[in-house]
Amino acid sequence: MEVSNMTTVTVFVLLGLSNNPQVQVLLFVLFLVIYLLTLLGNLLMVLVISTDSHLHTPMYFFLRHLSFLDAFYSSIIVPKLLENLLSKGKTISFLECFTQISLVIFSGATEACLLSVMAYDRFQAVCHPLLYVVIINRRVCAGLVGASWTIGMGTGLINTLLLAQQHFCGPNVIRSFACELPPVLSLTCSDPCTSIASILTTMSVLGLGTLVLLLGSYSRIIMTALRINSATGRSKIFSTCSSHFLVVTIFYTSGVLRYMIPASGSALEQVLSVQYSVITPLLNPLIYSLKNQEVKVALRRMLARKSRLPL
């Protein structure tokens, strides 16, 4: 059949997580609470870092952007998920679906870049402490963050535009609760080789590139820490880097598992999607606030200032 004679899909149907109305209500309450906590945690982190002068350092400058990005990413996925849990017609328009795909790729690519930038920052702080202020100055910080956002935007735009060139003639049922690239790509009626090549290139260049930078930075950090005779010095280095290393581990593990499993709509695939897109943005501010003494002290200072304000 000629492509020109095929019916073009204008809307997609999101199967979601459950068809049981009672389960849907419970899931709605659960994900609403998670979403509100995610926004609260990440935006509170942004507020604390912005208002406390003790946290106006490169590490917290990068962390502020990461927290804003996590709040943004959660807002791409969860509101539509909540809407579909309470609606009978679980449809999403072609434009809305591809916008969501573009923003998801943009957020993931930007976060990968930011995490590698934060690892590089810790490498310079630990391995070159005397030159740290000179190397990681304000202009460099702005440039690294700007490059991260730009790479993320370009990656999302290129992959989405290539996917949009595919022809969708049916079926239009997405076996997921959100428009993600793997399940949508499986619905194409035309040859998906271009999109697949673009995805593989992105994963190879961006994914492996940032991972190599992360592993290289942490290898040097560990070697430097082991050469320090002082147990207190080693402990300070590991405590400073442990939060970031844990966030990196969760991000890459959940992301690789999510996108390496073929799109099938299986329960495992749905669990990994929830972990990657809903749970991870919630965990990041908790990890940084609970394991970071400076953040906890800054939060107490901010709350103390608020309590002293006249009514």
TrEMBL record:
Gene3D superfamilies: Rhodopsin 7-helix transmembrane proteins. It is found in: Cell membrane. PANTHER family: OLFACTORY RECEPTOR. One of its GO terms (cellular component) is plasma membrane. Keywords: Cell membrane, G-protein coupled receptor, Membrane, Olfaction, Receptor, Sensory transduction, Transducer, Transmembrane, Transmembrane helix. Odorant receptor. This is Olfactory receptor. GO terms for molecular function: G protein-coupled receptor activity; olfactory receptor activity. Residues 41-288 form the G-protein coupled receptors family 1 profile domain. The chain crosses the membrane at residues 25-49, 61-78, 98-118, 196-216, 237-261, 273-290. Belongs to the G-protein coupled receptor 1 family. InterPro entries: GPCR_Rhodpsn, GPCR_Rhodpsn_7TM, Olfact_rcpt, Olfactory_GPCR. The keyword Transmembrane applies. It is a multi-pass membrane protein. It holds the Pfam family 7tm_4.
